[in-house]
Design goal:
Two copies of one chain form a homodimer. Chain A is mostly helical. Chain A folds into two domains: about 50 residues, Arc Repressor Mutant, subunit A, CATH 1.10.10; about 150 residues, Orthogonal Bundle (Tetracycline Repressor, domain 2), CATH 1.10.357. Chain A is about 80% helix and about 0% strand. The longest helix of chain A has 28 residues. The first copy, chain A, starts with a helix and ends with a helix. Chains A and B meet through helix 7, helix 8 and helix 9 of A and helix 7, helix 8 and helix 9 of B. The structure holds a DNA duplex.
DNA sequence: TCCTGACTTTTTTAACAAAACTATCAAAAA
DNA sequence: TTTTTGATAGTTTTGTTAAAAAAGTCAGGA
């Protein structure tokens, strides 16, 4: 039983990896179940044995990416020495995450509206996990007496995250494309760090 | 000659007003030239006598709105007493502008990409005018010695404006609609003021 | 329990006709 | 000469249908 499940888990993992590669290079709609099956030298039917449908497969990949991302954040955010370091780490990690999985997200780009409910659930989970980690960072700094008391850390972090997100979007509307091109990502990253710098100073003031 | 042109200008103005109302209530694609003509009890052909085509008509309306908006900003931004007041005025004016012309902009919502070049030109002009006014406000404060010297005011304002814009967008992705609903506008406004507060403190630190 | 080939169902694409709308123009009205 | 219009030409959107492609199912084999 356990052995069988191990085998299953390994195969599931293989499928997730192959799917990730396909989705990463070709996006959701330009990836077919036949192609994924082909990459793994298995029949398409087998994919449906492991995953109920294509969107669930995509979501499973996404869930894994999100979990990895959050693990990276968590591993580090409970051991920072000051607030700026913590937030900078978040911005850098997020930047790296986007760069590495850039094409994966064209599902969002193309399908912008009417996405499956589950996707928004994952996005929401990631968002609130980030919000939690960062507002905790603020609380710790307040306890240490490093910054003056804040009555609602979650609200502050929420605003900051929206603002950071805005930097991304801002670079877009000027460039007339509704998603940042890879070339712009570095520029966006720099701007985010600038915003962060001012914002942190504002918190400490 | 002058009289004839006056008459023309008056009629042009009437057309712009009627068009504004239509675009405001029904958006670009759901407004037909026949309807505008009907509102003014004139033939559709006459519209084409005054404006070369539909998009030029829309753009003319937009240009007028933009001019009014900028005039409001300018009238006040050269006589503020401190930086926060200046920026708050910008945020409030912008908010009012969006609220008043909310539906007008569904041209952007629907047509998000492939908009006529001229529209981006106007958006760009408004943006750089705002950027100018606000970075000037910073320079004045620096000269007054109210805040510490800033090596690149334009860059700062640019980041702030992107961040403020991000507040708007942020409220969206959570709500699953790609443009803020009217109900959210107040919430967005409040968040913007909070961001502004922290940001300004950060500048003064 | 894991896996497949053959099959069914659903979605996408392409072609095309009908309808709606934009845009033009010759000629009337002012 | 300038302003206005009805009629109409041209273009885009919408709706329809058939073929192709992809998603998804299933009986049966290892």
């Amino acid at each position: 039983m356990a052995a069988a499940n191990d085998q299953q888990d390994i195969k599931r993992e293989k499928i997730l990896e192959a799917s990730h590669q396909r989705f990463l290079h070709y996006g959701y709609s330009k990836t077919t179940m036949n192609e994924i099956a082909g990459d793994l030298s298995m029949s398409k039917a087998l994919l449906y044995y492991y995953f109920p449908d294509k969107s669930q497969l995509y979501i499973a990949v996404m869930r894994k990416l999100a979990a990895d991302y959050l693990k990276t954040l968590e591993s580090r955010l409970d051991s920072f020495t000051n607030l700026k370091e913590a937030f900078t780490f978040q911005v850098n990690t997020h930047h790296e995450f986007i760069v590495n999985n850039y094409n994966f997200f064209d599902f969002f780009r193309l399908n912008e509206q009417n996405l499956p409910e589950t996707i928004w659930q994952i996005v929401g989970e990631v968002h609130s996990a980030e919000l939690n980690l960062l507002s905790n960072a603020i609380k710790i700094e307040v306890d240490k007496g490093a910054i003056k008391p804040v009555n609602n850390p979650e609200e502050i972090v929420d605003v900051l995250m929206d603002a950071l997100h805005g930097i991304r979007v801002g670079a877009i509307s000027q460039k007339k494309t509704n998603f940042p091109r890879k070339e712009h990502l570095e520029e966006i990253h720099t701007k985010k760090l600038l915003l962060l710098d001012i914002f942190i100073k504002g918190l400490m003031a």
